[in-house]
Amino acid sequence: MQIQPILTALRRHRLATFLIALEIALACAVLCNACFLIFNRVDAMHMVSGVDERSLALIDVDGYDPQHAKDLNARMVAGLSAIPGVKSVGIINGVPFSQLGSMNGITTDPAGQHYNNVVNTYTGDAASLHMLGLRLVAGRMPVPDDYRPIDGFVPDDSLVLITRSLADSLWPGSSPLGKEFWCIHFHFRVIGVIDHLVIPQPESRGPAGRDWSVFVPVQPGAQLAGSYLLQADPRELPRVFRQAMLTVKKIAPDVVIDHDNSSAISDLREAYFRNDRSMAGLLVGVILALMLVTALGIVGLASFWVQQRRRQIGIRRAIGATRADILRYFQTENFLIVSLGIAFGVLLAYALNLVLMRLYEVTHLPVAYLLASAAAMWLLGQLAVLGPALRAAAVPPVVATRSV
Predict the structure, then answer these.
(1) CA-to-CA distance for 261 and 98, rounded, in angstroms?
(2) In a 10 Å sphere around its CB, with 0-12 CB exposed, 13-18 middle and 19+ buried, how is residue 23 labelled?
(3) Of 24, 190, 253, 349, which sits 20 to 30 A from 236 (CA to CA)?
(4) Cβ–Cβ < 8 Å for 98, 228
(5) Is 387 exposed, middle or buried (0-12, 13-18, 19+ CB in 10 A)?
(6) Alpha carbon distance 291, 31 (integer Å)
(7) Contact status, residue 124 vs residue 155, Cβ threshold 8 Å
(8) Where in this chain does the entry annotate a coiled-coil region (predicted)?
(9) Taking the mean position of all CA atoms in its chain, how far away is CA 295?
(10) Cα–Cα distance between 173 and 157 in angstroms, integer?
(11) How far apart are CA 212 and CA 165, in angstroms?
(12) What share of the chain is helix, strand, coil (3-state, %, to 5)?
């Protein structure tokens, strides 16, 4: 089929062609970025926390006198450990997906002139570290002598575990074992590298920093109290947690339970990503609505052009054009319009992505999303024009020429 007659026909309908191409461009740009955001949210919701979420729960309390922190810890650990089904109880300052944590800048420069990264510092006792189920990939785990009392923020000269991604960021291409870093005047030395341990609020740091965590082994006391990690069989954990909440009220009736941070870690994850799931669902709805509107626009324009060209179709059929020829004509015409829209849509998609990168710190739009969106728009265009094109191909030559 020759393209020139189609281009000539489109030039005679410049405004209609431009409007439908603009609609396709907008749909393509929104489709690219909406799908990109959806997959980013889905990827974030399935991030590996590095801990045994299904068997762990956190109970966080406040309102106690720091001078009585050691007594509170002893009573809470003893009381919670006595609950049937509880395997272990530990003391920790926070867990992934909670609102508890300690974000601080660190530096590998002893003089502290340049800070490299902002990391989350987990502090916990030996029981909590064991319960987390962290996977060691290099070095060693802390031994009893490594657990030291906290004087302030953390013990000075702490021997710590860091995540693999943090190690790669601080010392790319070299072993982090034995390396040193500082936070204010506190000194740390790396003894082990763990696979994953996400920060409490991973979306606050973006994909690069969501796994930048440091675990400092410490002894509980005034600076580490009020947050208790429970371990139980996943099937028993809901019952154990409910009983634990009731037990806390008997052990320490004066404390205030922080219900926002007291939950099974799997439930903390679910609550943390609730807005992301809502946003993903909303974007799916926007995509479907936009695709429907675009398809209806293509169908309306094609139907209008079929009605206008009945005489032209009849003449072509009378001089030997087959139904397949008429069908291919409208499909090719639609392909050219959609291609024009996609060309503008790609530019618009990149412009929209730049805005999102600046406002919401999303990453650069991969080319794969542009190719997939272009294919989707071409397919949508061909499906939308198929009905009007089939009606045009079904017009008998005699019926069409009667209007001459």
Answers:
(1) 6
(2) buried
(3) 253
(4) no
(5) middle
(6) 9
(7) no
(8) none
(9) 30
(10) 25
(11) 6
(12) 55, 20, 30
- Greater model confidence, 8 or 61: 61
> Phi and psi at residue 380, in whole multiples of 5°?
-60, -45
The Cα 375–Cα 391 span in angstroms is 25
Strands 158-163 and 186-194: parallel
Tell me the Cα Rg of the chain: 32
Residue 270 CA to residue 16 CA, distance in Å, equals 48
| pLDDT given at position 150 | 85
CA distances from 287 to 17, 18, 221, 362, 400 (A): 23, 22, 53, 19, 39
Pairwise CA distance, residues 350 & 36, whole Å: 12
- Closest-CA residue to 401 (of 304, 333, 314): 314
* Cβ pair 48, 196 in contact under 8 A: yes
Query: What is the rounded CA–CA span in Å between residue 73 and residue 86?
Result: 16
Dihedral sign from CA coordinates of 26, 31, 32, 37? positive
Report the C-alpha gap between 230 and 251 in whole angstroms.
Answer: 16
State residue 305's pLDDT score.
Answer: 77
Element (H, E) at 117: strand 117-124
Q: Which tokens hold the place of 94? A: 């926070």
DSSP-assigned letter for residue 102? -
User: pLDDT class for 399, splitting at 50, 70, 90?
Assistant: low
- With 0-12 CB in 10 A as exposed, 13-18 as middle and 19+ as buried, what is 18? middle
Q: Tell me the β-bridge partners of 162.
A: 193, 214
Using CA atoms, how far residue 257 sits from 227, 253, 262, in Å, is 10, 10, 8
Mean pLDDT of 189-200: 96
CA distance between the termini of the chain = 25
Where are the chain's structural domains?
Answer: 4-45+275-401, 97-220
